[in-house]
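Lab notebook, bench 4. The sequencing result for the construct came back, and we need a structural model before the next group meeting so we can plan mutations. Quick request posted to the team channel:

Model the 3D structure of this chain.
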Amino acid sequence: QVQLVESGGGLVQAGGSLRLSCAASGRTFSTYAMGWFRQAPGKEREFVAAISWSGGNTYYADSVKGRFTVSRDNAKKPVYLQMNSLKPEDTAVYYCAAGGRAGPDSYDYAYWGQGTQVTVSS
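Done. Here's the predicted structure in token form:
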């Protein structure tokens, strides 16, 4: 069993940065791929980024490529999403997830956090 808790969300002006953290419990955390998703009001949840269990492979949605960076430190367990050059369209609730494959599909992930709000003002 893996429990995930996101933190680091908040209000930021366009062009600013935030770093989201995903704290995980569970001894097998380091064997899971991790993903970040987001859901804006009135929209479906969408893939943002993912990282393999080893941290050696990362994947990004086209909309965030070059601006967001996903990383992990299995020794200390958190997963991070560094978000730079934020845009108003990045406003959403951001969720981290753990699963067997670092894919773009929600079905790749078995465990989900409760989410953290990110609001980018113009």
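The chain has a mean pLDDT of 94.
Will bring this to the meeting.
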